[in-house]
Design a protein that fits this description.
By secondary structure, the protein is α+β, with helices and mostly antiparallel strands. It has 10 helices and 10 strands. A 5-stranded mixed beta sheet has the order 1-3-8-5-6, with no helix packed on it. It has a 5-stranded antiparallel beta sheet with strand order 2-9-4-7-10. β5 (about 55-60) and β6 form a beta hairpin. The longest helix is centred in the middle third of the chain and has 22 residues, at about 155-175.
Amino acid sequence: MPKQQKIPSFGPEFLGTHNNFSLKSFTQMAYSEQGKPGFPHRHNYYTVFWVKTGDGIHYVDFKEYPLEPNTVFLISPGQVHFVKAENDPDGSAVMFTPDFLFANAISTNFITNLNLFMDADENPPINVPDNSAQRIDGLIEIMDTELASMEPLNSEVVGIQLKLLLIECYRIRCCQLPENQKEGSVVHIIVKQFKNQVEDNFKKLHRVNEYAEKMHISSSHLNDVIKQHLGTTAKEYLLKRILLEAKKLAYFTDLSLKEITFDLGFDIDDTSDLSLSPIY
């Protein structure tokens, strides 16, 4: 991913006047208003990228994914991403804020339980089969029509189509998961809870046993489950999340090493804090 001193962050004002929702072509998102290639940036809203055709690379949190036909990328608020297209890609970008979800009675729990918006390492693009691609095209077409109309309750219609789009993505991903990783399995519940705990607490809690205690299970059992599901230990997963945040702060801000360390909840002057040693 190209390096720049500070990373731009786009808020709801970028979405225009459609009540915290926007639908743009993938080409619009891949290039700046001057027709130049895009640059690393982040949003404080959700984005669903639907790639119908195209070649290139999509960088998400320092990880590279090829642009391929019939794929969906799901970008969470705060994730750094950047599209480097080899030609004009065909597709759409569906962008929406938490306020839009709230206004359309789409709860935060619904979004969380879908488990679609995750860290890049755990959230590769979804490969969409042809029959599902037709449904996705149809849902986005209805959104586009409603956004251009002056019909009453058009925002509500868009909200319904968005919920159906997210459900379609969820169903496709579920079909591609091994049986023991599907919704409702014991392993899935533990992994999901651990990921949520790490996302909420990685700046405060730096040891696996602290997470195991919050989840009321043993550290060894937590490690076994995470290793089975993710192919990495709980400690490695936690360290990876801390390192990702450290890389973002070092790469895209002017913060000093000491300031980054403090932001991540470590005391760089305290040599007894051995949990810091693997990071530097």
